[in-house]
């Protein structure tokens, strides 16, 4: 067992995070004891962030104490691991548009004191800007299957992400176009980020996800 | 600082809960669940019926050739059971046609099926009972959908029929979404697979209709007019859905008339 990033552990092919709420498993994942610390297994086939780490993410911007805006929270599987990593001093704000997944997500939020749920459309960031002052967010993470993924990312970055903050964008090629070659889509979407961001790393999520790419970038000063 | 964040967090959890509650108080949630269950019930019924027919055929293989309707078949199995019980008196209630009834009774006397143990027969009867109870539930659901649609989306229900209307709402995942859709999207709801196949490879022709193919007016058209009628129906349906969502008056009769006129013009 090796700690590859703060609170993120790796052994053989599997990833783990340090459980913030010992004794509870969020979505049925395996719990493990390692030298007195309880670890939760992090399935790279279910979480794009885990897949990106597996495929060689150079640096994990989500650290203990980070303030993360997470767009596309879904049922809260990945976000529970983000909550593990940022720990008690950090905070994660999870946004999702669907009431269906929010039901489960709220239950995760009640268990973990560092997650805040917002039921809103990430495409319209002004509808939730009143809840926190702009420029406080240190990491913007986005995983939504929308045609204007890059645009949503830029809009939210404009409203909330502080200068020099980090962004992680999971691009799903198939929600942008069914017919264009996948690599062309990745390229044109990444190019859209250039006005606000410096792209640090692009990671294809094969074989864990099909036609997905994770773009790791930093907001210009 | 931490206190303030926790306070805000509690407020936002409360707010999200409220929003979820409001959404699930709407009728379309139940309509969507019911219509999706309807399809699963049919699949379940067919699966159980198939099993029952296969099993009972060990005892009376000729029956399925004469009674093709699954529901009648299952009723015979459940109420009569053993081949020896196939008498004029017992079967009269279930098989209405005299000709067919006579053939069944004749076949029962000369059947090549083997004798069956009592407890095995009980298991088969139980199976048919379960399958039939799914049919009963289906009837109940149909009337529930009819009632709910009448109150919630009278125009869509009036124009498309309650079940088809509900199917469209489910495919759009809500009346609101359906009302916001362009008619061309409504026309192809339920034909996504064919549509994307066409987009990937333009040599393959695109679909002309999705769920709305189930509408009687589209079905009865000759092939060359089907696409045209489907297009007009989709147009009228989008008007109906908007009238429903924005609480307009009931205009389904007027829409229906216009649609029928359009269909007549085609010949």
UniProtKB/TrEMBL annotation, chain A:
InterPro entries: Fibrillarin, SAM-dependent_MTases_sf. GO terms for molecular function: histone H2AQ104 methyltransferase activity; RNA binding; rRNA methyltransferase activity. Keywords: Methyltransferase, RNA-binding, rRNA processing, Transferase, tRNA processing. S-adenosyl-L-methionine binds at residues 77-78, 96-97, 121-122, 143-146. Its EC number is 2.1.1.-. GO terms for biological process: box C/D sno(s)RNA 3'-end processing; tRNA processing. Pfam families: Fibrillarin. It comes from the Archaea. It is an enzyme of class 2 (transferase). Involved in pre-rRNA and tRNA processing. Utilizes the methyl donor S-adenosyl-L-methionine to catalyze the site-specific 2'-hydroxyl methylation of ribose moieties in rRNA and tRNA. Site specificity is provided by a guide RNA that base pairs with the substrate. Methylation occurs at a characteristic distance from the sequence involved in base pairing with the guide RNA. PANTHER family: FIBRILLARIN, RRNA 2-O-METHYLTRANSFERASE FIBRILLARIN. Interacts with nop5. Component of box C/D small ribonucleoprotein (sRNP) particles that contain rpl7ae, FlpA and nop5, plus a guide RNA. Belongs to the methyltransferase superfamily. Fibrillarin family. This is Fibrillarin-like rRNA/tRNA 2'-O-methyltransferase. It comes from Candidatus Iainarchaeum sp.
Automatic annotation (TrEMBL), chain B:
Gene3D superfamilies: 1.10.287.4070, Nop domain. InterPro entries: Nop56/Nop58, Nop_C, Nop_dom, Nop_dom_sf, NOSIC. GO terms for cellular component: box C/D methylation guide snoRNP complex. Residues 152-267 form the Nop domain. Pfam families: Nop (PF01798). SUPFAM superfamilies: Nop domain (SSF89124). One of its GO terms (molecular function) is snoRNA binding. Belongs to the NOP5/NOP56 family. This is NOP58 family protein. It comes from Candidatus Iainarchaeum sp. The lineage of its organism: Archaea, Candidatus Iainarchaeota, Candidatus Iainarchaeia, Candidatus Iainarchaeales, Candidatus Iainarchaeaceae.
